[in-house]
Write a structure and sequence with these properties.
alpha/beta, 20 helices
Length: 532
């Protein structure tokens, strides 16, 4: 078997604790067994995208009707994942690790994907921080003298780790000159170092699976789980996986995805921004019918978003799985009026999810944990979930899932300015190694930049006329508006910080991706080459 070579820019403190000879051998096995299938599935994604372009349609799969019509359920949730009424998300830096585990949420999504910039420091440091946390050796004092320490074990959130999506590679770890998929690196190192320890403390190796586009990709993950458990002597079924339904193609295969993972599945999650990004990506040739308005005007009450979330709840509860709602991204402000309005909106959103039958939901900041918990406590009481609400009243058609033109809103120049501002600000931080970024009082991640640049691209190519100015969106218009927004940013941060913060590079990347004639599937692919 070929060995994994480490081609990192530098040797990090304690790196050898993560990249042990045994751990690297485990990664090599994962790579040789599963990367070829990963490659085939990425080609299948491209074929399906071409079919969508030719037909302008998606539908439920006729070949898997027997799965949707069959009688089966996923494995029962383990005790640590029975009650998921509030989940907090965030990257795996040391401060966030302590604060998330201490937050009062039932679950922490420990993120190596959209909320993490995949620098070598973050990839290795995140693994160290999680291993330290599970062994209660993560206490530290920051540069300001503030001390961080874990609360008693019974008060800590349960960690559910999110590895990178199938499309991303880890260029610092190679087998035979070929980069190992980032998903296998993140999963493999975490599982190798922590699976047994997690079982000792009454939990387990639990995962969130991102960016899946088909049940075939879920089957690949299931095979990875089976192999990993067998290789390390961990009982089959110890792994649990929650799948983010954040692509439009996966929305048509929810039951099939749960079926493929049924011995390891624990639920599905509704990922809002990536879902919209996926609609633009797959239906970018679909004309006006599929043009999304300003992203902040596409609420979860839009008919096509309601169809998606209600189908998710019905699917999960029919199969005994948890249904987890979307993100409340607000970051508490020093402005009391801003907080009051935002908290009201968050509460309304969480009230809606709890009322629709969701078993829990996401927040991005510890300050929102009590708000979300209040909404779910009001519905759940002492019950851990509401899987008994089967939502048999829900009947969703393909047309309803694809009814993007029912938002009642249109693109505006204000929306264009916001896309440029948010996309630039996020990419500036991502390129600096920070993947979770506060922008205009919202915690943003890669999905934010994806929907921002995708909408600009779509509006240009669909020749959208802006509702507030009457201007047609062209490349020249975008360049003019973008130039003005860059001046706003430069004036705000100051010339020295603008130059030292590499703002121009982030701005240029956003414009390049937005103005290119050919649509780039994931901005993180060209952006990764710009990381140190």
């Amino acid at each position: 078997m070929s060995a994994v070579s480490v081609e990192a820019p530098k040797i990090l403190p304690r790196q050898e604790e993560v990249l042990t000879e045994e751990a690297l051998a485990f990664l090599a096995e994962l790579h040789e067994l599963f990367t070829p299938r990963r490659d085939e599935l990425l080609l299948a994604r491209a074929r399906r995208r071409r079919e969508i372009a030719e037909t302008g349609r998606l539908d439920f799969l006729p070949d898997t009707a027997h799965i949707r019509e069959g009688e089966w359920r996923v494995a029962p949730a383990p005790p640590a994942l029975q009650d998921r009424r509030v989940e907090i998300t965030g990257p795996t830096d040391r401060k966030m690790t302590v604060n998330a585990l201490n937050s009062g949420a039932r679950v922490w999504l420990a993120d190596f994907e959209d909320a993490s910039s995949p620098t070598w420091e973050n990839v290795i440091g995140g693994q160290l921080n999680l291993a330290d946390a599970f062994r209660r050796r993560i206490d530290f004092t920051d540069e300001r003298g503030k001390h961080y320490a874990l609360r008693p074990d019974a008060e800590l959130a349960t960690a559910v780790m999110r590895p990178r999506g199938w499309h991303l590679d880890e260029r610092h770890l190679k087998v035979g000159g070929r980069a190992v998929p980032g998903a296998l690196v993140d999963f493999g190192l975490y599982f190798f170092h922590n699976a047994r320890r997690l079982r000792e403390i009454g939990k387990g190796p639990y995962f969130y699976l991102a960016k899946l586009e088909s049940h075939h990709e879920a089957r690949l993950w299931n095979d990875v789980f089976v192999f990993a458990q067998r290789a390390l002597g961990v009982p089959q079924g110890t792994v649990r996986a929650t799948v983010l339904i954040e692509t439009i193609t996966a929305a048509f295969e929810m039951e099939e995805i749960l079926y493929e993972l049924r011995e390891h599945a624990s639920g599905l999650n509704a990922g809002r921004w990536d879902y919209l990004f996926s609609i633009v990506k797959n239906f970018r040739d679909g004309g006006e019918k599929f043009v999304l308005p300003d992203r902040n005007s596409v609420t979860m009450t839009a008919p096509f978003m309601r169809a998606y979330t209600e189908l998710l709840v019905r699917t999960c509860h029919k199969r005994g799985a948890h249904a987890i709602g979307g993100m409340a991204a607000f970051i508490p402000s020093r402005d009391a009026k801003v907080n009051t309005l935002a908290f009201q909106r968050v509460k309304s959103d969480k009230d809606r999810e709890a009322g629709d039958g969701f078993d829990g939901s996401w927040v991005a900041h510890p300050g929102l944990v009590p708000v979300a918990r209040e909404s779910f406590d009001a519905v759940l009481g002492e019950r851990p979930h509401q899987k008994d609400r089967l939502r048999e009243d829900v009947h969703v058609t393909a047309d309803e899932l694809l009814a993007v033109d029912t938002t009642g809103a249109r693109p505006t120049c204000d929306g264009l300015r916001n896309a440029i501002q948010v996309g630039t600000r996020y990419l500036q931080s991502w390129l600096a190694g920070r993947g979770a970024v506060a922008v205009f009082n919202l915690m943003e991640d890669v999905a934010t930049a994806e929907i921002s640049r995708s909408q600009i691209w779509q509006w240009i190519n669909a020749e959208v006329v802006l509702a507030d100015t009457g201007e047609r969106v062209t490349r020249d218009l975008v360049r003019r508006v973008a130039a003005d927004q860059l001046v706003v940013i430069r004036d705000e941060v100051g010339e020295d910080a603008f130059v030292s913060g590499d703002w121009q590079r982030a701005f240029d990347l956003l414009l390049h991706l937005s103005l290119e004639e050919d649509y780039v599937d994931f901005l993180t692919l060209p952006a990764y080459d710009l990381l140190p």
